[in-house]
Specification:
The protein is an alpha+beta fold. It has a single domain, classed as Yope Regulator, Chain: A, CATH 3.30.1460. It contains 2 helices and 5 strands; from the N terminus they run E-E-E-H-E-E-H. Strand 1 and strand 2 form a beta hairpin.
Length: 115
């Protein structure tokens, strides 16, 4: 854990794991619109080594999260307001879905398990 960030790995089955980061966005942040939020993100691969149009197509089929590039890494990310947060329904389920989908995309686009 570093500051407002928590990073860890989750098992996704078939001897694969997936890195995930949870970031607290405080209410005072200009982008937070006066509320505290939590951002979940999971990497898919280095942006310069994967087919980005294909990533966007595949991410469009995801129930949660959207594709983004941060510091050269393509990832899926999903943001939730903390004020309405029910841990099981509004955090755990999106976290699990996002991590599983990011791992599927990583496997399809890179044929590796780097993240």
């Amino acid at each position: 854990m570093t500051g407002d960030w928590l990073r860890f790995r989750l098992g996704t089955g078939a001897d694969r794991t997936q890195q995930v980061a949870v970031h607290h966005v405080p209410a005072g942040d200009a982008a937070a619109d006066g509320e505290a939020w939590v951002e979940i993100s999971s990497p898919v691969g280095r942006a310069d080594t994967i087919d980005l149009p294909r990533l966007l197509e595949l991410a469009g089929d995801s129930l949660v999260g959207g594709a983004a590039i941060v510091d050269g890494v393509a990832l899926l990310k999903h943001t939730l307001p903390l004020s309405e947060l029910s841990v099981r329904e509004e955090f755990e389920r999106p976290l699990t879905l996002l991590v599983a989908r990011a791992d599927e995309l990583e496997h399809e686009l890179t044929r590796s398990d780097r993240y």
